[in-house]
Amino acid sequence: MGRKGENIRKRKDGRWEARYVKGRNANGNIIYGYVYAHKYSDVKQRRNEILARIELTSETDNVKSDSCSFTFDQLLNEWRADVRLTIRDSSYFLYNTIIEQHLQPYFGKMEVTLIDDSIIQAFIHAKVQEQLSTTYLQSIINLLRSILKFAYRKHRIAMPPLSVSCPRTAKKLPNIFLPTELERLEAFLEEKDDDFYFGLLLCMFTGIRIGELSGLKWEDYDRTAEQIWIRRTVYRMKNEKYDAVHETAKTVLHTSLPKTASSTRNIPLPRFLLERTHRHQKSEDCFVLTGTPHCMEPRCIQKKYRKILEQCSLRYLNFHALRHNFATLAVQKGMDYKTLAELLGHSSINTTMNIYVHSSLERKRECINLLKN
Fold this sequence. Notes:
- The protein is mostly helical.
- The chain has 14 helices and 8 strands.
- The strands form 3 sheets. It has a 3-stranded antiparallel sheet with strand order 1-2-3, with helices on one face.
- The protein is elongated.
- About 2% of the residues have low confidence.
């Protein structure tokens, strides 16, 4: 007895038979397929699985036939419009730089459906020849993967497995200052009664980022609670309105919310800095580093910081090393990882532990010596 409307019937041999449409022949006539099982539920499930596969294959074939001239350039235009309002300006312009310098010249005119692992692997090989860093190359591949995933979501274009390989290099731990170097830098800064030197001391003992230091205003200082609020960051980015004919600037200074939601945070000031903080305090609309309503942009901070290291006869480590030193010293002094992660503005403790915390040689020696005791 057949199940009405389902094309499923019970045969005389006791098995259930389900009929489905496989397709049509050259004359347009329907071609049927059949599946069998001893239970009604089993035959229905098998029939539905086959129909789902047929439907997915049909969708993929239709998309490929409709998008045979769908190029990577066209895909990029759609992807840009899709992500423009969902990511930070700095991230958007970083992605655009990668696209314009690397992805577009190589993939731009290619049909999206033809991009497969072999083509992507050839692209990686070409970039390796340009001696790009492994970290930067991985960023390029991650961006390409994101764009191809968008193609799948938007157009159901089959995405390649992306089982590609990048060259492996030894992990490099970031350089940090030795304790004696930090003492020399701290002593030098404490001798100077200047807003900029005070700002560097603040950075050394709070771990704030260079953009956050640049955007720090006196309105962010809570004198009652003896803490600062990180509410903004300053960075330089590509000018969307750049026009060589009218001689507009290629880059512009931009102020926005901190890097992530976790980066908006409050940081209590160490007691030894409070008297100096009150001495330097200006009106609320003034920036901490300049003592004026105008901020000092990050690249100027970097230049002044480099000169100070030269004056102290210290080796050059980039400004971010101060943040690494703060985190490492905090752990050595017994600060728990959860507190440190919140002070640094990290959403995950793993980020704090894996990137910013490094055991000193003295600490390693102490732990080794514990084995005998």
